[in-house]
Amino acid sequence: MKWISLIPMRAGSKGLPNKNTILLAGKPLYQYSVDAALSAGANRIYISTDIQKVLSETMPKRVEVVKRKTSLCTDDTHINSVIFDFLTVGIGSKIRDEEVLVLMQPTSPIRAVVDLKNAVKKFSETSN
Question: Taking 90 as the threshold, does the pLDDT of residue 127 lie above it?
């Protein structure tokens, strides 16, 4: 099964400022989600963000950073609005029907690659 990952993150955080890019054991928090997606076999990883530092970074092959609209970077923005915008505007609108989108929150650094692989496999088995 071909699958892609969407990692949504924004600059604003009331609880812990800059939480998505804060260093944890030497690397930015969001990087754990990117690494897990790469290790689990994602065809492509998209990071949807308004964080200028991330927008200007060089990413590994298969990882693309997409600038998120300012209107979708508020405390009141629902994730379904972010996903819908990604899938209907720009690069996300080019995703093929056979590709599955896996949402990965950047604030879940302890997710195991094997769990991600198993989840994609289980989805694949039940969607056929």
Answer: no
DSSP readout, 18-55?
TTTTSEETTEEHHHHHHHHHHHHT-SEEEEEE--HHHH
Exposed/middle/buried for residue 99 (C-beta within 10 Å: 0-12, 13-18, 19+): middle
- Size (the chain), residues: 128
- Distance (Å, rounded) from C-alpha 66 to C-alpha 7? 10
Predicted model pTM: 0.93
Q: Which amino acid is at 66?
A: V
Buried b (16+ CB within 10 A) or exposed e, 67-94: ebeeebbeeebeeeebbebbeeeeebee
Report pLDDT digits (tens) over 70-111: 999 999 999 999 999 999 988 889 988 888 999 999 998 889
d(Cα 125, Cα 28) in Å, to the nearest integer?
A: 34
Write down the pLDDT at residue 15: 81
- Please calculate the CA angle 93-81-13 and round it to the nearest 5 degrees: 120
Report helix, strand or coil for 87. Answer: helix
Tokens standing for 106?
């950047």
